[in-house]
Amino acid sequence: MTAFDALKVKPFRQFVTARFFLIFSVQMQNLMLSWMVYDITKDPLSLGLIGIAEIIPFLSVVLFAGNMADKFSRKKMVFWASLLITSSSVFLYYLSANQSSFAPAFLLTCYYTVVVLIGFGRGFFGPASQAMVPNLVPADVFANATTWNTTAFHIASIIGPAVGGLLFGFGGAYVGMPVIIILQAISLLLYFTLNYTQVYGQSSNEPIFKRLSGGIKFVFSNQVIINSLSLDLFAVLFGGATALLPVFAAEVYHCGAQGLGMLRSAPAAGAVLMAVVLMWKPPGKGAGKILLASVAMFGVCMIVFALSKNFYLSLAVLALSGAVDNVSVVIRQTLVQMNTPDEMRGRVASVNSVFISLSNEIGSFESGLAAKIFGLIPSVIYGGLATIGVVGVTAKIAPKLREMDM
Fold first, then answer.
1. How does DSSP assign 94-113, residue by residue?
2. Alpha-helical regions (H) of 208-310
3. Contact 142, 338 (CB under 8 A)
4. Tens of pLDDT, residues 178-228
5. Most buried residue among 67, 111, 172, 324 by CB atoms closer than 10 A?
6. Cβ neighbours of 268 (radius 10 Å)
7. Which candidate, 121, 97, 104, 100, places its Cα nearest to that of 177?
8. Per-residue model confidence as pLDDT tens digits over 134-175
9. How many other C-beta atoms are found inside a 10 Å radius of the C-beta of residue 208?
10. 117: part of which helix (H) or strand (E)?
11. What residue ranges define each of the domains in the chain, with the CATH number in brackets?
12. What is the CA radius of gyration of the chain?
């Protein structure tokens, strides 16, 4: 077995490429949106509200989307969800091309509307795309495929904010948005032409809410899965500081949109470096302890980042946080997918997506609110300490997770 086994499978290679271009473009767009929102409001809470604007539509559809992914074509769901995200980008391009014609309050409303559209798109895209991966590769290389899938995400997360920051810094959204739309069009074409064979479960006349509850019950009945997802939920909910990076860029480092792009890219850069290690030496014996240690180190990184006043030290700490976070991502995703029957993967993936989005988007709101109440630096320090506390509690109450091997 080699580090490139999953990429030798053409459908998986095409799937990863399509996902890469979509994530790349969305990361560019997220950076531009966060900077434009903060430029209007000068309020860190407005950055937290971006997360709320995305999570509400996401949560309203994601569980139903998971059920659809088990009954209908996942490939078509991914395509139409990607098309909705692309449509939101076209709308944002129109706004950027005519921004001098609109009042700031109207522009701010439209920016949040774009985020809402992306939230709906993500709600359908996430469960369907997660459920597709196991059918694209042989079972014996699935862990390798998971590593490549997360690596593609992190590479896109490096390049996206960096390129977005440069294009926005030198030419504004009017220059960056056409690039975003082109990348998303390429992704749409790749998804549309993907050769994907779906395995459907037996036809069922069960009421939809009973089917939805089946996925939820499956997750909550598996102690290792629910404990690992809960660990990530609370750790990132309290410890994440990504939403506040525009404030750090503007008020701590005074580095502008270009520096913000570097700050946003640093965690993903560390994640990619760690992915190279994981490709050659995936987590095996003692994976549970590795998972707990990596999440605890993430909390330590957030504390050091908050205390740092040096831009380059902060970049290094953010890179380390991305590296240890990637370890936990690979362990969790492999664990969830390999312990889920194919006919339930859509529903289980939707539950997994709820946990991930609650930690990210609600975490963004929590970060913005905490920064407004306690101040920028103290809020990040408290969040890092809370993350370490979550790890300690989990290690105590979840012995099966702590002793897990892969």
1. HHHHTGGGS-HHHHHHHHHH
2. 208-221, 223-239, 245-247, 256-280, 287-307
3. yes
4. 899 999 999 999 999 988 877 665 555 566 666 667 667 777 777 777 877
5. 324
6. 29
7. 97
8. 778 887 777 778 778 877 877 787 778 778 877 877 777 777
9. 12
10. helix 104-132
11. 6-193+208-402 (1.20.1250.20)
12. 20
Q: Rounded to whole angstroms, how far apart are CA atoms 390 and 383? A: 11
| Residue 50 near residue 34 (C-beta atoms within 8 A) | yes
Query: How far apart (Å, rounded) are the C-alpha atoms in residues 206 and 149?
Result: 33
d(CA 191, CA 117): 20
**Amino acid letter for position 121:** G
- By CB atoms closer than 10 A (0-12, 13-18, 19+), residue 281 is exposed
Give the tokens for residue 64. Answer: 């139903």
Torsion of CA 36, 41, 45, 50, to 10 degrees: -30
Residues 6+ apart with CB under 8 A from 72: none
Residue 362 is classified by DSSP as: I
Contacts with 351 (C-beta within 8 Å, 6 or more apart), sequence order: 63, 66, 215, 216, 219, 229
| DSSP structural state of residue 340 | S
Q: How would you write 141-193 as a 3-class SS string?
A: HHHHHHHHHHHHHHHHHHHHHHHHHHHHHHHCHHHHHHHHHHHHHHHHHHHHC
The set of residues, in sequence order, having a beta carbon less than 8 Å from that of 395 and lying 6+ positions away, is 292, 402
Residue 287's pLDDT band, with cuts at 50, 70 and 90, is: confident
Q: Please say if the pLDDT value at position 93 is more than 60.
A: yes
Which amino acid would we find at residue 160?
G
Q: Which amino acid is at 263?
A: L
The structure tokens 């069009």 sit at 185
Q: How far apart are CA 25 and CA 160, in angstroms?
A: 6
Q: Which two tokens stand for residue 387?
A: 């993350």
Which of 139, 150, 144 is closest to 4 using CA atoms? Answer: 144
Q: For residue 401, which of 254, 291, 305 has the smallest C-alpha distance?
A: 291
pLDDT tens-digit series, residues 10-39 = 888 899 999 999 999 998 888 888 888 887
CA distance 160 to 276: 20
Q: What are the residues whose beta carbons fall under 8 Å from the beta carbon of 187, sequence distance 6 or more?
A: 18, 19, 21, 22, 25, 82
